[in-house]
Structure formats: C-alpha cells, structure tokens
C-alpha cells in the first residue's frame, strides 16, 4: 500500500498542471459543499437572532391558524375573551398581555405625496411588550385610547423619516394627527410582522371603528416575566409557558385553531421552504462532485493507456492483476482525497475572507465551518474515488503483459 502511495505522489508531483486540472471538479464540489453549509447555518442563525432582537425572546404571539380555520369553518377564532382568559388565568405565571388589530396595507397621503404604509391598532401594553420607544413627540394618552380620536404614531422609516409630530396624514381619506415618531427598531423586512419602522400606529378603539369592523384582534401578545430564581435558558421557560397557554386557550374549543409565533419561531411552511432550499443546494454540490469524479475516471483511463508499457514491465517482474488493480485504485482515491483537502482549505480561506467582508460592510458574520460538511466531503470523495477508479484500475489489471511490453 505504501509503495502505491509513494508511486502516486511521485506521479502527481511530476505532472502538476494535469493533476490540478484533474482534481478541479472535486475541489469545486467540496469547497461549494463546505461554504454553502456554513452560509446556510450562519444565515439561519442570523435570522433567528434578528427575529429574537426584533420580537423579544420573552414574547409569545398567539395567532389564528388559518389552515385549520379554513378546514373547519365552525372553529373558534381568537378574540377578546381569549385575551382576557390568558391575562387572568391562575395556571399561567405573571404575563403582560395585549392584543394587536389589523396590520394591513393602506392608502395614505402626506401633503400631496401618496404612499402605502402598514397600519395597526395597538393597546397601551404594546409599548412594553414590543419594546417600542418614542423618539419624537409622545405616546397616546389614556383618553386617546378610550375615546375615538384621530391620532397616530409613525414608525421611524415612514416616508423615510420625514414626518414629525403635528403633521397630518390622511389614511384612506381620513385625517390623522401624528403625536409621535418611534425610535428605529430592529427590522425584519418591509412587510413582516416585526417590521415596526414602516407602520402607522393607532389607538385600538380608533382603529377598530374606522378600519376593523369585526373588532377581532389579529393576534394576542404576551410578554413573559420570568422569576428571578429562574435556572436554565429563558427559551425553555417560555416554551413551558406556551404549553400552559395552550391549555388555557383550548377552553371552549374542540380543535386547536391557533398557533404560536415569536422570537425564533418558524412556521411549517417556512421550515419546508428552508428544507427544499437546503436539499437543492446540497444536491447541486453533490452533482458537481460526481461530475468531477467522472472527469477523474476519464483522465485515469488516459493514464492507463499512457502507462501500458509500465504495466507490462510490472507484470513481467511478478506483479499480479490484484497488485495492478490496487495500484491504480489507490492513485484514483489519492487524487480525490487530495482534491478534497484542497477544497476544504479553499473553503476555509474563502469563509474567513467572506466573514471579514460581511462583518465590515453588511452585518456581523462569524467564521464558522460545519463539521459534518467536512466529514461528508472526505467520505464522499473517497467513495467517488473508489467508484470512478474501479473501471480504469480493472482495465489496467486486465492488460496482457506481452502486448503491454510491445507498446511504445
């Protein structure tokens, strides 16, 4: 075996350009697998952390499960009674409970400039639950919450931050006076639930009267107040509260017509989309490695033809068919494994560069390498080497020694 390894390494060293071209497919495939696995993992963690910063790790959102409601027209939607039950239940720990209403696009005009903000009705607890703060002006007064007054608060990025307290904005034909502008908050996209920067907020009663005839809340939100003696991660405690909340909300329901959202929560659809993306990415990289293996097999067939006389000499000196088979199979596996190592090194270097560049110009991007992607690359490269090297090695071992010696 060691003799075969030394022979293979000597051959590769004497034909550097040819060797590099031979392993290029494996290098690209392995580097792609390691890089994409890292990007998918870091990107997904980044989104979850951004969601946690935007929503709050201690915030639980209860929303309608529309798939269940569509399949069961008589199923109960979330309503004010659910909010009251969650807030007063002795089964649950201390919670700050509120409800949000609406959250939809609307047509608005500022001066003569039309725009389409997201509008939402909120209760007083929203500022504490969602960690909202007013940068300019003030929050709603108690009278503005209880009476139907046409006042509003703008998100930090509404009209690119050009609005200020005292401005009048017409929303769907009705004038509203801005009493405040929010501080900029961690953004999760222009239209997502946690994107407060592009919203216009209204007192809940005003919103329901003028934009939400059903008076039903879009969701119920609860901020968990963990005990000072809490041991273990907050996420585990919040998950336990969510389970208890399920028991409370199932009172009066025959089917579970609601689901939960919040920091780190992903819907089944989102998980399926991510799974499909991951499968497509990994299948593409595996296909690239297979193509690289086919290229190696082709080069090894050419190598067998070029080394026919060498094979004849080895057979004449006593080498068996098994020796020739092992020699060429070893060389092929060595090619793929060296290509794998080069691919891993290239991936690590590129990930380090990408991490520095992303952190400097885009967002914090930690250097991270998925261990399983490296292990899978090594195993898969060895398997490809054995499979793609089997036929050239078999052909080399089956050459007639006499005919091989006659070859120039």
Domain unit count: 2
**Helix-strand topology string:** HHEHHEEEEHEHEEEEHEHEHHHHH
Main pleated-sheet profile: 12 strands, mixed
Strand content: 15-25%
Shape: elongated
Low-pLDDT residue intervals, each spanning 5 or more residues: 189-193
Q: Structural class from helices and strands?
A: alpha+beta
* Number of extended strands: 12
Percent of residues in helices comes to 40-55%
Query: Count the helices. How many?
Result: 13
Whole-number mean pLDDT: 84
Head-to-tail CA distance between termini: 28 Å
Radius of gyration: 32 Å
Short description:
The protein is of the alpha+beta class and 408 residues long.
Description:
- By secondary structure, the chain is α+β, with helices and mostly antiparallel strands.
- The chain folds into two domains: 2-51 and 270-406, no CATH class; 57-262, no CATH class.
- The chain is 55% helix and 16% strand.
- It contains 13 helices and twelve strands.
- It has helices at 2-14, 16-55, 66-71, 80-88, 126-129, 142-146, 204-211, 234-249, 268-306, 308-316, 321-361, 371-397, 401-406; strands spanning 59-64, 95-105, 108-110, 113-115, 118-122, 134-137, 151-154, 168-171, 174-182, 199-203, 219-224, 258-262.
- Strands 1, 2, 3, 4, 5, 6, 7, 8, 9, 10, 11 and 12 form a twelve-stranded mixed β-sheet that branches.
- Strand 8 and strand 9 form a beta hairpin.
- It is elongated.
- Residues 189-193 have low confidence and may be disordered.
